[in-house]
Amino acid sequence: MKMTVRVTIWNEYRHELTDDKVKAVYPHGIHRALADGLAEHGIDAGTATLDEPEHGLTQKVLESTDVLVWWGHMAHHEVSDEIVERVYRSVLNGMGLIVLHSGHCSKIFAKLLGTNTCALKWREADEKERLWIVDPSHPIAAGISEYIELEREEMYGEHFDVPPPEELVFVSWFEGGEVFRSGLTYRRGQGKIFYFRPGHETYPTYYHPDIKRVIANAVSWAAPSGVARPVYGNTQPLEQIKPKQ
Amino acid sequence: MKMTVRVTIWNEYRHELTDDKVKAVYPHGIHRALADGLAEHGIDAGTATLDEPEHGLTQKVLESTDVLVWWGHMAHHEVSDEIVERVYRSVLNGMGLIVLHSGHCSKIFAKLLGTNTCALKWREADEKERLWIVDPSHPIAAGISEYIELEREEMYGEHFDVPPPEELVFVSWFEGGEVFRSGLTYRRGQGKIFYFRPGHETYPTYYHPDIKRVIANAVSWAAPSGVARPVYGNTQPLEQIKPKQ
Amino acid sequence: MKMTVRVTIWNEYRHELTDDKVKAVYPHGIHRALADGLAEHGIDAGTATLDEPEHGLTQKVLESTDVLVWWGHMAHHEVSDEIVERVYRSVLNGMGLIVLHSGHCSKIFAKLLGTNTCALKWREADEKERLWIVDPSHPIAAGISEYIELEREEMYGEHFDVPPPEELVFVSWFEGGEVFRSGLTYRRGQGKIFYFRPGHETYPTYYHPDIKRVIANAVSWAAPSGVARPVYGNTQPLEQIKPKQ
Amino acid sequence: MKMTVRVTIWNEYRHELTDDKVKAVYPHGIHRALADGLAEHGIDAGTATLDEPEHGLTQKVLESTDVLVWWGHMAHHEVSDEIVERVYRSVLNGMGLIVLHSGHCSKIFAKLLGTNTCALKWREADEKERLWIVDPSHPIAAGISEYIELEREEMYGEHFDVPPPEELVFVSWFEGGEVFRSGLTYRRGQGKIFYFRPGHETYPTYYHPDIKRVIANAVSWAAPSGVARPVYGNTQPLEQIKPKQ
């Protein structure tokens, strides 16, 4: 099923410019790899990066974005509070948000979740990750077999200090002995949020067909449902209130 | 069952000093009424108010608090960001938090929940509220019959813009035609949070035996479980990782 | 968005044949009214009724059904255990199930939920029901404004003895003083389940445009996601297991 | 904190009588090992086994049981439907239930959960299991550090075909490459249910101090909260219903 979802991919875009190892893997930036992956699933995506004016996330861009994909790592603190507030308002108003990998420690994810989500275990040791589907009925897992195997990835381990997810789609097994809840859904305001663990900058994770499929599925899942807006504030009674004695 | 839980009740304490109608209902402040209610259930509680130094919430006070009860309304914006951050850290470290009535719009509740939780319907019309128990197995509802009836209260109506609660304990019916999810639990970090709707300052709600019982139950429920702390950050592998080809 | 979902509407179809009041409201049966409602939303639906052979739910019918809609009331006990078991297996294998109104007390709903879901309050008093949306981000609520108002309905009141729903979409207000969780989602196996409260046989509820829309939304939501099947049972290790001392 | 909880431990008690390897590990039966473990935490427990009259679960025994612990494996089908129904009613009326290891495939667990919970992966290969705490705020995890390590256990792997748990306390890592949601909570009626994975009959798992502690914690958690009973059925209006035109 093809949907017309307007997607913007935001990437910090620093590692790829300064680290040869990363540049070799993602010569045009992680955002281009992600956009190409979505294109394979019939989804067009624009891109935005940290060093553009307003980090590329102008009010106009956000107003024409149904789902925002977020990758950041070394420069979380350089994202301005004003832009974070703007993205935050957009999510509460219904924009979907897909947070990838080290984005768990971004300002926007912490603000939406209400915990300091930098707390987890990690290790860079070229180890195998296996993402098991624990919710095979979930549309985000559609088209994947039982698990996704990544030959080399950074390890993230529990405890991951996030609120209990509304839905748990994937749990990762790591060769070095840890597990991680690696596919999580949340809702905030009218916006849907999906956190997806894989994607360390030194590995070709975002070229993996299953990873591309999951991100495309997540974009479709997170797109706004087009619900009418609730009315808030002081209001008149709908029923007649009987006088009290 | 009597537990030794160290409780601090925080009250804005402005309406009671400036509004004769409120003063008549709570001559010693809402915090005193709440403390007296807990005392009936064998729970000792200290108090703190907005206009004390550091709003009465010094580091020392928080370190000796297992559960914090929060009532605020007209002066949310006067609570300093520094103190909010301090309370936030305490909750993430395991302190329980009971947020009452208009505390839904407090800085601390919004920060912990990740939504701008001021969004709901409201009306002051002396109308009847009936809080139905929808989870009779929950310890917070222990000792209550099917519902709690309040002859006159302020109305809060859906949509209430909070994340889906982990547990829904009460749903309110209002005479004027609205419903409201009025008893909600959340976890953030290692802290447990309970939001309880009733308690507009012009009504004697906090003298109602069932309301006192629910707050006492909630305090016992929110007390820390004494769990050992997870270890976060860079870590060594627990298992031997096989060399890749 | 138009989807090709294969729907079967199951109706007990007894009240309409034996009770003049009901016959006047649903002269061709509740199933026909429901099918017509779905047709307005571009969804074709077959029908099946209790008194057909195998209750109209042959293995062949179920194999070509993506979503089953269920209305029953006075003859729950006449539904054969064999057919219940057949429907049960279909749901676990991914068929969606929409349970309407008094279907809460059906064998199939109890078997899937794990509680004796006949336990609730009820009253026939021609009273007003107002179904408030408590989850405006949910696709089942798409296109509805803040609430659905039904001028006359049977009352269902809490406590409703079901497991805590995974998602709570609607809460009903009743004129006589009760509330009810009236739109609930569950997953069992690979199947999605939606319970929707309204639709007493003596009222024209299923002709209401908003009710028709919600049921159409629910059918789209409950349609299988097409996920590959997990493999169960005895298995070989994926990793080499080190010999123990 | 010491509580007076009345516990009954039910054990199939067949492997221990017929398999020398199991007899060597649990010479007095798994039920005795479990009872001894609870005694260390100040909890007295009675026992019952399959081959006693009424499987040891008479109406009288169940009426004086706050929490029932269940271990079964090779003879699930020999448990009579009448006793299963009796246990089922007790859980819905508030009795806690702790289901251990292969009890996932018992009649009572399937009936309460609403899925055919025999579906999972498994392997007997003397491999290491590591149960990671993913919810450190949960009372069932109190007193445990980050994980529990079992040097040799049977593997259970995802997908585990249970409804999404209300709370996920533990996730297991297995040496052979799988993960498993191994500590799950549910509520049914007024009863609390905890499923805990470890405890294959050929391993000394139930002598492990952390395992004993978790089971003791779970018993305390599952004990009834003493809530007043809801009233079900036909009822009178609480509010005056206005006549319709």
From TrEMBL, chains A, B, C, D:
InterPro entries: Class_I_gatase-like, ThuA-like, Trehalose_catabolism_ThuA_prok. It comes from the Bacteria. This is ThuA domain-containing protein. Pfam families: ThuA. It comes from Cohnella silvisoli. Residues 6-222 form the ThuA-like domain.
